[in-house]
Amino acid sequence: MRTQKKITGFLVLLIFFFSFAGSLVPSAQAAEAKKTYTIATDTTFPPFEYQDASGEYVGIDLDLLKAIAEDQGFEYRLQPLGFNAAVQALQSGNVDGVIAGMSITDERKQTFDFSEPYFDSGPIMGVDANNSAILSYEDLRGHRVAVKTGTEGAAFADSIKDQYGFTVITFDDSPQLIEEVKAGGSVAYFEDYPVVAFGIAQGNGMKMPLPKEPGGSYGFAVNKGQNAELLEMFNAGLANIKENGKYKEIVASYLGDSFASEGGEIEIAATAKMSGFELIWTSMPAFLKGLGYTIYYTLISLFFAFILGLIFGSMKVSHNKVLRGIATVFVDIFRGIPLLILAFFIYFAIPQALNFTMPIWTAAILALSLNAGAYVTEIIRGGIQSIDKGQMEAARSLGVPYGTAMRKIILPQAIKVMVPSFINQMVITLKDTSIMSIIGLVELTQSGKLVVARTFQSFEVWLTIGIMYLIVITILTKIADRLERRVSRG
Amino acid sequence: MGKVKVTGLKKSYGSNEVLKGIDMEVQEGEVVCVIGPSGSGKSTFLRCLNLLEEITAGKVVVDDHDLSDKKSDINKIRENIGMVFQHFNLFPHKTVLQNITFAPVELKKQTKAEAEKTAMSLLERVGLSDKANAFPASLSGGQKQRVAIARALAMNPDVMLFDEPTSALDPEMVGEVLGVMQDLAREGMTMIIVTHEMGFAREVGNRVIFMDGGYIVEEGTPEEVFGSPKHERTISFLEKVL
What we know:
The structure holds two protein chains of two kinds. Chain A is built from 19 helices and 14 strands. Chain A is α/β, with parallel strands linked by helices. Chain A folds into three domains: about 35-120 and about 215-260, Periplasmic binding protein-like II (D-Maltodextrin-Binding Protein, domain 2, 3-Layer(aba) Sandwich), CATH 3.40.190; about 125-205, Periplasmic binding protein-like II (D-Maltodextrin-Binding Protein, domain 2, 3-Layer(aba) Sandwich), CATH 3.40.190; about 275-490, MetI-like fold. Chain A has a five-stranded mixed beta sheet with strand order 4-1-5-14-6, sandwiched between helices. In chain A, strands 10-9-11-8-12 form a five-stranded mixed beta sheet, with helices on both faces. The radius of gyration of chain A is 27 Å and the shape is elongated. The two termini of chain A are about 35 Å apart. In chain B, the strands form two sheets. Chain B has a six-stranded mixed beta sheet with strand order 6-7-8-3-9-10, with helices on both faces. In chain B, strands 2-1-4-5 form a four-stranded antiparallel beta sheet, covered by helices on one side. The interface of A and B includes residues 393, 395, 396, 409 and 413 of A.
């Protein structure tokens, strides 16, 4: 009887937990009424997409998309995810289309349907402006070069690396390539020509010793066989804005007039590089907003983790073998899977397999809650088991039921034991939110990435972000210490 | 009320049989002292009487309630069986008064005010009225054990089980606890006491049970067991402890 009641209670909680998560998913029917397309893009791929100083996403891709949508009269919602995440989100059906400076390749055509090419690109090599040793591909022999995963630059570097005897390292973000080269890990990087040129114009301290390679074109992508009407509208709109001069206007506004008309040299006047202090000062609102989200996601995730921990922790100390088994499996799974893989699995794999969509923040909170929940389960189990068995026996011998004895006698004592571990877990979860930037969650780390993508001033930004984490964690730890002292005083 | 009847009680931990068939009966108001070498199963036996240990086989009936019957409400039955532990097991996060009132209030036996009144009179009985608001950590071992006795008595049980109540005490504190127990016996409480205090068993016990190897080897009045033990194992045990 008692066990049954406990199992029922557990199920109710579980259903509550998942229906809460489920309620965050916009229902498919609502979207049918007036179709709003969700279109994913990269976060850090200037000049095609990046955040300007005010935190708005701008870039050639986004302006083109906007103009085409206006021309064709369709609604869309933009989801800046990062390139890899955007492509995976498209595959898993989380988004309807991707516009992210995506090169049209035969390989990709297996999975996606592309629009007419809207921009002709091609890879080029970038090196540090002060580096006079790398003047040709031949000079790369024995060195390392950096590329961004899935780009034409990466494909090109791969195709010539054996011939010229260099090794390749891949990154997820364009700015990371610059940082890698600046830091000296790689001597050069291969990236799409407009990106490299735009970065140099922004004063990222690189140069292009060689002309660009002939290359492919960028296209707008949808999942193969899906959203054909969206693709048609894109093509029609693209033709229209090319016709009426809007296209030229947009490209020129980022890459200069001559580039737009002749496909020639980029000639943006190099924008004055901001001083470190100025940069941090203007970016601070974005950072603080990111920090707010970081704390917000941490607290929500810890709340669910605590509920999960209480449920599975009590199951772990119960006398019922089945309950203990379930709890052990829960802990083993979610403690055993790296958080990053868990996030990928929840955000990309599950929606793809079960054919539904999930907002990033739901996926992030689920991943963080389940991961922290496994650790909290162990903290609670350890705390409960650290209390002398005689306490439970004394309460039971008086006729007090198990649950009451657990709540009123064991837990109040156990919590004192658990507090330091809880504080530790809180700090870990707060830091772990940064991992969620990889699926595009907007939080402190992500807001740093975005600023670096625009300004290429990684030292100032990462120093500031690091200090911000440090300050917040120190404050939280101090508060928790004080709390701990109060708890242990009784 | 306060009768205990045990028939064919067996207890095993896996393949290790600790109790190999115990039959005994305790009458209302009787004080039974259980003695025997360590590992003889006497503590396990006592803990079977309120089901802190699950019974492997056999029957334990306290008053009219069959503990071995899965359908009986064990919490209800335990209210009637007080237990005092070797290591006191007071609740360290509660004051002395809260330790005593916790179960009666939680189980709705009494209102908080009633329970506190009862608790104060119990504390007076064990001579600790001035410690009502102290926390267990500030008490001596003897004081802790007297509070533990008061806590068990607060549920107004008909039977009291004592599991080596003085073994963890400094010698000079044994007397105060035994004194309280002696008073309790005089008032007619049914008591089953696992103890190493042979003097106390002889003086206060109506009956003494000698256990060894999971069996009751010998039982009788204190005079019989201590004065003229019949069984060889009883003789050799008593030779060692007396």
